[in-house]
Amino acid sequence: MKRKILIEKTDGQYRTYFLENDEIVEIHCSPADETSGQHHRLGSIYVGKVKNIVPNIGAAFIEIENGISCYYDMKEAPNAVFTSRIGKKPLCIGDELVVQISKEAVKTKAPTVTSNLSFTGRYAVLTHGNTRIGVSSKLPRSVRDEFKAQLKDWHNDQFGIIVRTNAKDADFGDVIREIESLREDYLALLAAAPSRVCFSCLKSSPPEYITDLKNVYMEGMEAIVVEGRELYEKVHSYFESELPARTDLVRLYDNPSFPLCKLYGTETALQRALMEKVWLKHGGYLIIQPTEALTVIDVNSGKNISRMKNENGIMKINLEAAEEAAKQIRLRNLSGIILIDFINLEQQENINTLLKEFRSMLAQDPVQTSLIDITPLNLVEITRKKVHKPLAEQIDIKTFHLQETDEAI
């Protein structure tokens, strides 16, 4: 698979576009003012204070800044690193402890924090609170077994290690060096935390476009195209520090008369990714409607009325809709509960085939996505891990003039 990344600064945002085989498959946006919301970035670590405890839901609310309360699962308290304790209970109001943002704020929901800290590198993650040695399930079993055998001596009762998918083709020595570096960062943070005051930021995550580069699969990567000299220097500096052998991938694009958004059609792709209606190639269309609790995707035959007369025709529409739905879920970063109303099929064999094909399509998503089942009302249930905000919340939609059309694009 051919991969490419585009990074641009526009409308007060950094926007990162992931391309696979020349098609935009992911869009990530973040404020261009890197001091804005610095303490609320995913992965940042602070000394927080317990503001409130809600026993009936097994949760606490922890302030990481005056007025910024975050959800915390009290089951994690036994593994927490406390900097100040008020009482003898596992958790008390007023306790101060080290927490890390694990989920961003979404709409009316507060950010989620965890005391099971993680230190993420390109090839591995060091985990506090989970001491197992794990390997990404997306790696072949033979590779997983080899990594587990090689890392056996690293097992301890203080921290764990998870080998990431990116380590597939990495030299084992590079993986070990990264783990050693992560361990040094982890031990340094534990040593510094007791002397830091409440609300201190112990570790600030890098800008999101740098995090994107750390997490992306490099296999098949052809180029990382960056618009603007200043932004290019930051990305190039990251590669010189972390991936010096791949700095040749970073390329500057600096043509004001024909910007990157025109060359690759990024603005058009972004606008389409915010529209409610998505046309399919052969006349059908999807309606995508996020709500507070879940996202609903409705499949419609549209102009493809002729195929509605037989089961095979309906099956073709549904398979095309499944492929596009999987793309849109990833592109729009939809998460949580997703319900898809496919056109009803009569034959159980066709239903099974649709679910099997759709499950295979969803498995290509880098974010954990699971097809749960189909309900008696023929609604397909999906769950996708919540981490970042959905694309529609990363963008000020008022700045876009979304023009719905009755014509297939």
Describe this structure in words.
With 409 residues, this protein is α+β, with helices and mostly antiparallel strands. Helices cover 26% and strands 31% of the residues. The strands form four sheets. A six-stranded mixed β-sheet has the order 17-18-19-20-22-21, with helices on one face. It is globular. Mean pLDDT is 90; it is low at 404-409.
Characterize the biggest β-sheet. 6 strands, mixed
SS-derived structural category: alpha+beta
Find the count of extended strands (DSSP E, 2+ residues): 22
Helix content: 25-40%
Number of helices: 9
Give the spatial strand order of the biggest sheet: 17-18-19-20-22-21
The whole-angstrom Rg is: 23 Å
Please report which band the strand proportion falls in: under 5%, 5-15%, 15-25%, 25-35%, 35-45% or over 45%: 25-35%
How far from one another are the termini?
25 Å
Specify the overall morphology: globular
Uncertain segments of ≥5 residues (pLDDT<50)?
404-409
**Averaging pLDDT over every residue, what do you get?**
90
